[in-house]
Amino acid sequence: MSATIQRYRKGQHLKQTQRLLIEHLRLQGHSTRDIADVVGCSHVTVCNELKRGQYEHTNSDLTTEIRYSPEIAEQRYQTNLAAKGAQVKIGHDHKLAKALETLVIKKNYSPSAAVAELNNKGWDFDVKICARTVYNYIDTGVLNINRTDLPMKGRQKRKYRRIKTQKRVSAGTSIDYRPEEVDERTTLGHWEMDTVYTTTKKAKAVRLKPALLVLTERLSRKELIIKMRDRTSASVVRALNRLERSMGAKKFTDTFRTITVDNGSEFANVDGMENSGLRKSEKRTKVYYCHAHHSWERGSNENANRLIRRWFPKGTDFSKVTAAQIAALQDWINNYPRKVLSWATSNTVYELYMQQQE
């Protein structure tokens, strides 16, 4: 027997021309070893190929026999090739899959934070995977998680098309005069403050609706959330007074050495925010104002606000949000693993630095 096609080389996959030759020789009644000699491969390769392409053929007398089809073999080969790849690492570790799905879907964790949370708790699972693998499992449908279940839901931050300029002077001291140690984030006690509120088309209506006063510590990213009856400067001062009374004047001053705010009208009463409500004529903190439309100067605050919006999206009526819900949100944020903290939590970092100061 002779062949007019290129001979098979060890390690190669069979080509369509070689499959046609196998079909031709098989129909002539040659054995698998004879076919292997002609094609130039192992007879085991020929046996496997015949199994791959076998089908039941019906003869003219309605009898049936098993034959080999190079077309069927090629189709099955391509199907197997498309599915080729490493086995799913998570395998049958249903406990791990359930834990990831619970953290992402029910507790609003990102996949990266979910992996960090499980690592922080000792990773009590059979299989070890990284955050990138979790994202791959989401995209390929291995986990019962969709992109819409993720915090960003597959969205990207919008691009700014216009740069706004400041139209009025800040109510107090500019951030330009803030001490360098605040920028360095090496000591506790320096906070950023903002409000989270319900958005409506009428600005006056927004100011008169309940809102949240949020404070973010710059080093540890520890979060404090206080509900206010409206978004006015008087309510901000009342909230700080209430916080000072609960902590005591000295502890408040030691805790809140500086507070950085934006130029919103709710922060217009700089004297009310800085002056102590318990020690008349004494300062309880120092307030600095960002440049107008420079939200990145309160970057930690803005990132914390995005965490709040995972639970209370825009349009939330804060008059219906209870104190227990706000306390649970604050606890969730302070125990959420943060990449900027090497996946530690704000509570852990804050307590660590507090112990160092004692």
Keywords:
8 strands; 6-stranded mixed β-sheet; single chain; 358 residues; Arc Repressor Mutant, subunit A; 3 domains; alpha/beta; elongated; Nucleotidyltransferase, domain 5
Description:
The structure is a single chain. The chain has three domains: 14-82, Arc Repressor Mutant, subunit A, CATH 1.10.10; 92-147, no CATH class; 173-354, Nucleotidyltransferase, domain 5 (2-Layer Sandwich), CATH 3.30.420. With 358 residues, the chain is α/β, with parallel strands linked by helices. The radius of gyration is 34 Å and the shape is elongated. The chain has a six-stranded mixed beta sheet, sandwiched between helices. Strands 1-2 form a two-stranded antiparallel sheet. A hairpin with a 5-residue loop joins strand 5 and strand 6. The termini are far apart. The protein contains 15 helices and eight strands.
Can I get a quick summary?
The chain has 358 residues and is of the alpha/beta class. The chain is built from 15 helices and 8 strands. The protein has 3 domains: 14-82, Arc Repressor Mutant, subunit A (Orthogonal Bundle), CATH 1.10.10; 92-147, no CATH class; 173-354, Nucleotidyltransferase, domain 5 (2-Layer Sandwich), CATH 3.30.420.
Topology:
Elements: H1 16-27, H2 32-39, H3 43-52, E1 54-58, E2 64-68, H4 70-82, H5 94-106, H6 111-120, H7 131-140, E3 173-174, H8 180-184, E4 190-197, H9 203-207, E5 211-217, E6 223-228, H10 233-247, H11 249-255, E7 258-261, H12 270-274, E8 286-289, H13 299-311, H14 323-334, H15 346-357
Parallel strand pairs: 3-8, 4-7, 7-8
Antiparallel strand pairs: 1-2, 4-5, 5-6
